[in-house]
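1st attempt posting a full record on here, be nice pls
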Amino acid sequence: MNVIIIDDEAPARARIRRLLAVHSSTVSIVGEAANGMEAHQLIDSLKPDVVFLDIQMPGLNGFEVLKKVKHIPVVVFTTAFDQYALQAFETNSVDYLLKPIEADRLAQTIAKIERFTVKSDKEQIEKFIELAEKLKPQKEVTAFPVKSGDTIHLVRLCEVAYIEAKDKYVTLHTLTGKEYLTDVSLKTMEEKLPANFVRVHRAFTINQDHLLEISKYFQGRFILKMNNRANTKITSGSTYSESIKEVFGI
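the predicted structure (as tokens):
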């Protein structure tokens, strides 16, 4: 089987090359690439049977390379980040190796590839990439940038008691009573907020870490008392009653 090694780190490529030498009767290394653009061109020109592909690379990452190529080989992802070690990797389309790659694990991969009866196709790879991108953990936002004139304040979300939307603007209300006005919509902001922020009204999202009390209100609504300096009370919207019950177990 013809093999291409793709990794932006020379020592990583050398390690795979050295480990593959043991399997010279099975695989033949026909090329190497140090970045995504080189990889894209090399795969389509050499049409290898197998590619050992690093996920994290400058420019195009491993997933983006596969979106661009016309020739689809059997793919073995190599990564130092085990969050990418998804069950989806263990199909007849792809496999994965965690860095530093161990000889025994590589031998398992080679044996698995030898058993493949169906080559990967574009549709399989596209479905896999879609799944992998959905499942990979997102970086948690810990601060939100707020512009004030020529200055950008980084407001720590752990210090925000609640967020209020009014007209076209959204205000971050901190525990100490400071207010930071933004021109970002509440919907856009919510897409970046961590899970401890809960929408309780079309105009209010609260930080549940700073919720002090919940009181029942009429028509199934609730009054939520925050532990900020003003002990702000927020009345929930009627359409949010069920989600509030679910989130807080009431």
